[in-house]
Amino acid sequence: MTTVTGVQARRAIFASWLRRGTVFIILLTLVVFFSLASDRFLQSRNLVNILVQNAPVIIMAVGMTMAMLVGGIDLSVGSVAALAGAISAGLIVRDGLPVYTSMAIGLVVGLAIGLLNGVLVVYGKLPPFVATLATMGIARGLTLVYTEGRPISGMGDAYTFWGSGVVAEVPVPVIVWLVIVALAYLLLTQTRFGLHVYAIGGGEETARLAGVAVNRVKLLTYGISGLLAGLAGLLLTARLWSAQPQVAVGFELNAIAAAVLGGVSLFGGVGSVLGAVVGALIVGVLGNGMNLLRVASYPQQVIQGIVLVLAVAVDMYTKRLENR
Question: How many domains does one find in the chain?
Fold first, then answer.
């Protein structure tokens, strides 16, 4: 009996190491490979560019991690980002509202759609995939209607500062995602809410019997995901200096890939914000490196898809190890 228990313990330790260690090995391998393949990769300008360009995906990945930890998923984040950016820009350019009032409304839009996702999942009993797929289409359609299919530009320097400004030689988007990551890390590791999030992902019914307000916690996780998607949309719009109706298409897949690569389980209850950030950096480094090597866009999609499949395979393998 002791031998069986010892084997199970070793398997659990190996599975945990595999989840946490593989992502760093992959990132290091990519950095070394692209450093040898291109002399421009390690230039400070390029490295800063990776951190800035991937700020929206990193922020979305944090929200996606919240949703996935409770056993859900949020496919609407890319469309929500586009809608939040378009509305904030439109309120400034068309309606003459103050910049920060308009940006706050954009964040509220993201929060509202996130809460709608939560209501559909928690109270409507819809599968998260179906609920967020529906809101993804709704949000993208609303963006096209609001913008009339045309970019909205001319928001002013106070707005674009959030996408291209610098504070103490650090780009503002990098500062924003570092703050978001720090806050999310503290929320998940140092608060009762974070404990409840992991408890729900580990077993919803067990968490309910233990007194966890399951519905409220799940609703809040989707709200946070929507809010962060809205924030990512504002940064993206500010960096582009315009609200593009088709911006952030496919970003939800990048956010999911980042979370899964970072060790967030598709089954819920396992993973961390820091892992998701490393996963997002893997996605960013992979895309940046392939661009430097002049890899065409279509093969890039194939390679990124293969990386995601391998990450899911590792996730399922480690899950089986833990359950043996």
Answer: 1
